[in-house]
Amino acid sequence: MLKAISTYVFIKDRLHPGLLDALHRGGAEAIEVFAAREHFDYTSRAHVKEIAGWFQSTGVQFHSMHAPMFSNYEPESGHGEQVNVCDRDKRRRIESMDEIKRAIEVAEQAPFKFLIQHLGLGGESFDPHKFDHAMTAVEHLRAFAKPLGVTVLLENIPNEIATPEKLVELVQTGHFTDVGFCFDTGHAHITSTVHQAFGVMEPHIRSTHVHDNHHDRDSHLWPGDGNIDWNETIHSLRTAPHLPALLLEIEPDPQKPPSAISSKAAEVFAKLEAIKANT
Q1: 71 phi, psi to nearest 5 deg
Q2: What's the rounded Cα separation, in Å, for the pair 161 and 177?
Q3: How many CB atoms are located within 10 Å of the residue 78 CB?
Q4: Is the dihedral of CA 91, 158, 138, 55 positive or negative?
Q5: CA 26, 30, 31 angle in degrees (round to 5)?
Q6: Closest CA relative to residue 249, chosen from 164, 192, 188, 178
Q7: DSSP letter at 69?
Q8: Predicted pLDDT at 74
Q9: Residue 114, strand partner residues
Q10: Tally of CB atoms within 10 A around 178
Q11: Which residues in 53-158 belong to E strands, given as ranges?
Q12: How far apart are CA 84 and CA 94, in angstroms?
């Protein structure tokens, strides 16, 4: 599997070539950029150009971009308005869609393969209206992204809208044959089991978010630091019809310098590769 990692591990820092170098030194053959304005300002042509230049000069694959989770970010307060394409308020849904489209437009300067999209917020309850809003959002996003060479991937998250079963229902109901899934191991572990969620999502999986936890909260630990069965998980991923990237999405640790992140990533990739070789 393609070894990849998300810049989420550096989410508290402004993204720059030095941090990308650290991820590459850790063994990453591809990278997912997390679209948060304080980290990667997708509205800044200068910042986009800087990051695009790094990918072009190194040959590392710009694999995916995680869609924004906040808009109207205010550096003074350290937060913004939550992006939610399922919001009951039409104005907020439109604003959320506009924010995501700004991030997709990065592909004009820095081509990337996948947009990773959440449906709803963490813990959000289900109702038919929200499902309809999600359907409409996916339809518009896929149409906007396709001319730029970007495929929308929906992520299983801990709420009642983006469960594996509801995601399958959505793509089947909408006949979204060009929309895939990003399989999140940690989210699957805390909402059901990795094995169960993978079985539901398997035909549509195109990428992953690989992280661990203790089946209690969404802690985004390095694989092996929680209690997910990684032998079973890696074996399952290797049997997926569309062999996905093995993409680490790890909680930031401000106490660890980039060099420590590089070393840890290399160690984890080696352990997961060893599991692969023995399955």
Answers
A1: -120, 170
A2: 19
A3: 8
A4: positive
A5: 85
A6: 188
A7: S
A8: 58
A9: 64, 151
A10: 12
A11: 61-66, 70-74, 79-82, 114-117, 151-155
A12: 9
pLDDT of residue 274: 93
Question: CATH assignment of 3-249+265-278?
Answer: 3.20.20.150
pLDDT at 80: 75
pLDDT of residue 71: 85
User: Which DSSP symbol is given to 24?
Assistant: H
Q: What is the pLDDT along the chain (279 residues), one digit of tens a residue?
A: 999 999 999 999 999 999 999 999 999 999 999 999 999 999 999 999 999 999 999 999 999 999 999 986 655 555 678 999 999 999 999 999 999 999 999 999 999 999 999 999 999 999 999 999 999 999 999 999 999 999 999 999 999 999 999 999 999 999 999 999 999 999 999 999 999 999 999 999 999 999 999 999 999 999 999 999 999 999 999 999 999 999 999 999 999 999 999 999 999 999 999 985 554
> Between the CA atoms of 278, 275, 3 and 199, what dihedral angle is there, to the nearest 10 degrees?
100
Q: List all residues 6 or more positions away from 22 whose beta carbon is below 8 Å from its beta carbon.
A: 258, 259, 261, 262
Q: Which residue has the tokens 């983006």?
A: 162
Q: Alpha carbon 148 to chain centroid distance?
A: 19
- Which H helix or E strand runs over 6? strand 3-6
What CA–CA distance (Å, rounded) separates 217 from 214? 7
Q: Is the distance from CB of 73 to CB of 79 less than 8 angstroms? A: yes
Domain residue limits, the chain: 3-249+265-278
How many other C-beta atoms are found inside a 10 Å radius of the C-beta of residue 74? 12
**Residue 180, amino acid:** G
Tokens of 254: 């401000």
Residues in the chain: 279
Distance (Å, rounded) from C-alpha 234 to C-alpha 231? 6
